[in-house]
Amino acid sequence: LDVILDRAWTAGATAVLLRDNRAPAMGLAGRVLPLPNTTADDGRVVHEILDQAATPSHVDQLDIEGFCRFVYRTGGASKTLVRCTMVRDSGALFAWVRRIGDEHLPSHASGWLPVSVRNLMPETGLVLVAGPMGQGKTTTATALTAMCHQAMDQTLMVADPLERRLPDEGVGVLQRQIPEDVPNAGRAVGDALRLEARLVLVDIPRPEAVAVDLLALAGQGRLVIATWTASSSVAAVEALMDALPPSLSHTERARRTRNLRSVVGVRLMPARAGGVLPIFETLQLNQVVLSAVTEARLGQSAGTDAQELCTLSFEASMAALKSRGLI
C-alpha cells in the first residue's frame, strides 16, 4: 500500500483510486489516469486500509451504510496524511485515498482565497462551498472558517472526518467528528441548534440529509459554512432546493431559502510549478436568484441563464492565474 501511494505522489497525483481486483488509478486535478507499473493484484491493498487504518466505528458504519470516511497517516517514505473514502457495493470494496498534507491549516489560510471570494462572506446566513469530489472543498471551507473565526466568540466544526483544524485550535473552537464524537450528521447538526456557536462549519458527505437544519442554523443569526458536492454553484443551489421537503408551502420555502446567502464553487488546476492551484466561481444570492430558487427553477426566471448569475466565473478565475504565469 505504501509503495503504491508513494508512487502516485511522486507522479504528482493528489488521490489514488483502489478497487478490489482492479489495477489502481490516480487522480490529478479532476482527471483519473492509470497508475503505471501496477496490476489488478495491487487492488487488493484496499483491504489493508480497512484492516490497518479504519477504527471499529468506521467498520460498523461501512457494514451498516455501505460508506465511511476517515483520516490517517500513511507509512512509507512520505508518511502523508490522507483522507480515505471507502464504499462497499454489491460485495466489492472501493477506496478513494486523497492526499491532505498537513492537517493544520496554515495561519495564512486566507491566502488560498482570492479577494473576490473573501469579500463575498456575509456576517450571517448559509454559505455553500461546492465542487466535485477531491477538488478542494474542505480546504476552501476551512480557509473561510479560519478567516471568519477571529471575529466570532465560538466556532463549531462538524466533520466526517475532521480533516483540517484551525491554527488556534482550542481557543473558542468546539469540534465534533463523526462517528467518534457523535453517531451521525443529523445528531451533530441537531445539537448545534442548541449551542451558542456563531460560526458553524459542516463538512459531511451527504449534506442534503440535513439541509433543513443548515438553513435553520443560518436563520438563528449564525454564519454557517457547508461543503456540498456539485459540479457548479448553480448545481449546488438546485440540489439544496431538491433536498427541502416537498410538503413545504410556497411561503415557508421562501422564508427558509432567504437564509442562503452565497455559494463558492472550487476546482483544482495543475500548477506550472507543480502541485495544484484552486480556481473559483461565486454566486451571490439576491432577490432575483432567491425567487428562482424558491420556484425551484433556477436559471429560468425571466429568461436568465443560470451561469450568468455568477459574480465570478471559473473562466475568469483561470484567466487571472494564467496572466500571472501560475498555470
Report on the structure:
The protein has a 7-stranded mixed β-sheet with strand order 9-8-10-11-7-12-13, with helices on both faces. It has a 6-stranded antiparallel β-sheet with strand order 3-2-1-6-5-4. It is globular. It has helices spanning 2-10, 46-52, 56-65, 115-118, 137-149, 185-192, 211-219, 233-243, 250-257, 287-294, 314-323, and strands at 15-19, 22-28, 31-34, 67-73, 81-89, 92-101, 125-131, 155-159, 173-177, 199-203, 223-229, 260-270, 276-284. It starts with a helix and ends with a helix. The model has no long low-confidence stretch (mean pLDDT 83). With 327 residues, it is of the alpha/beta class.
How would you summarize this macromolecular structure in one to three sentences?
The chain is α/β, with parallel strands linked by helices and 327 residues long.
Sketch the topology as an H/E string, one letter per element: HEEEHHEEEHEHEEHEHEHHEEHH
Total number of β-strand segments?
13
- The overall average pLDDT, rounded, is 83
Overall geometry comes to globular
Percent of residues in helices: 25-40%
Biggest sheet statistics: 7 strands, mixed
